[in-house]
């Protein structure tokens, strides 16, 4: 399974190498991550975690990857034209060829939907405060992904 984000958090103290995730000591949580946790709570009844580190998802086989892997501190999208899109597209293409489920949040991630089998892709708006109310909230990506895993005879993710 792969969850695709846009770019790392612009605050270098937040980014930890996993899309949307932050180091355990980061407080307050970035707004996009708060919205992810709100959707998770509404979707699966999971209460708000004690921190924003998503490594536990990665440990269960979820690839959390941004389309752009670096940025300039304090600037979102600063390295969008630095060649990362082609690299991450190749990575995601390879993962999708192996039957992975794709959770694609936002237009940037939606560009990758053709790499996934049509019954293995979940698309919605990005969880940022600017777009969460335009289709992210209520999209139920976590339960839908788990249903897809069960249909394949695979273990659910403990979100």
What can you see in these coordinates?
- The model has no long low-confidence stretch (mean pLDDT 94).
- This protein has 159 residues and is of the alpha/beta class.
- The chain has helices at 31-44, 55-58, 84-97, 107-110, 141-151; strands at 2-5, 63-66, 102-105, 121-124.
- The chain has one domain (2-151): Uracil-DNA Glycosylase, subunit E (3-Layer(aba) Sandwich).
- A 4-stranded parallel β-sheet has the order 2-1-3-4, with helices on both faces.
- Strand 3 (102-105), helix 4 (107-110) and strand 4 form a beta-alpha-beta unit.
- The chain starts with a strand and ends in an 8-residue tail after the last helix.
- Residues 1-149 form the Uracil-DNA glycosylase-like domain.
- GO terms for molecular function: uracil DNA N-glycosylase activity.
Strand order of the largest sheet: 2-1-3-4
- The termini sit apart by 13 Å
CATH class annotation: Alpha Beta
Number of helices: 5
Which architecture per CATH?
A: 3-Layer(aba) Sandwich
Indicate the radius of gyration in whole angstroms: 15 Å
Family: Belongs to the uracil-DNA glycosylase (UDG) superfamily. UNG family.
Pfam families: UDG (PF03167)
GO molecular function: uracil DNA N-glycosylase activity
Keywords: DNA damage, DNA repair, Hydrolase
